[in-house]
Amino acid sequence: ENDAKRYISYLIADRKLKPKSVNLVLSSLKFFYNEIIQNQAFNAVKAPKIEKKIPTVLSKEEIRKLLEATSNPKHRLLIEFMYSSGLRVSECVSLKMDDLDLNEKMGKIRHGKGNKERYIILSDNLIRHLDDYTAKKKDKGPYIFSVNGRSITVRQAQKVVKEAAKRAGIKKRVFCHALRSSFATHLLENGTDIRVIQELLGH
Question: Most-buried pick from 53, 83, 134, 191 (CB within 10 A)?
């Protein structure tokens, strides 16, 4: 047990591994020692706590710059969807026109995190931009954000957001989740009940 504790301490202090990497090593060693060697030494070692990073939140002005720096209508709408509806990137790329009720200004996420279903809000601006986009859209597949009838990938969406932030000159670390965090923060600042925000985010 002392050897096991010393080894994990060495990974943290000398090798400077992050808690997430240490936990991966620890899980592997626990499995190997418990299941293969039948030795309980590593069970005495507690996993280090993973640091929670404060999410990046963009100001309304930075969101505006992000959109203005994006001339491609599909990419602009993608950014707008993630921000104005608080979508996860995986939910956004999987979105179909059939999931939306434009008259009710609502959408339905059918396969969210944990396979939970939830409703999202659609702003008037978003609906107007969506109408303009779909009227000119050549790819008539079921997905809103598609290429040759198939949805774009999460990686492609992440690249769109990263490049838009670079063009906009935003110095913060901007990624897809930052748009979702900004959606929640701006609603909170406008006085929306925290429970309503959690419902919209699917928490």
Answer: 83
